[in-house]
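fyi for ur records
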Amino acid sequence: VAYLLLLPPHMKTIPIFDPLMYGVAWVIALFIVDGYAFEIPSSRMQSAIAVIKAAPLAGLAGVIAFFIDPYVMTRPLIVMSTLIGAAFLVVMRITVARLLLHESLAVRAVILGRTEPGPEIMQTLEAARFECRLVGKVTGPASTEAERTQLIIEVRTLLRTYSADELIVTSNDLRVLPGL
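which gave:
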């Protein structure tokens, strides 16, 4: 967009490499400032702050591009590209990307353990509710063959009933339970 607004008179078309390089620079800058952190999707403020932190790095990439491809990336173009890119990223991250964060789009999971899951496990699953939604829980002993068979039947029933994609096992010995 900035290139179209500030079209250099000697350039009739823009090489495809330049906008792609600038897009990659934004992605790398967001990685550097932890713009893809775990809490970013659920916090609009954190997301906007991450983009603002990445803007100087993206601008620096524009300056580097100025020296790599002279007279294509001019100073006004670098500034406008950085500002317009930051504005578009903030708007996209606080509106459109937020729409994709819905619990109905999360992976459905069933949790299996000998006992009720601890509070730290439940807090972790709650924090990851946009990525993993707990739809069922199976707990019970697995000392005898009958108990193990019953656990497997319950797990399979829940997986089928809720079309669950994942099985979270909280007890180490149940990880190797035959039939899971």
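Residues 109 and 134 are 5 Å apart (CA to CA). thats all i got for now
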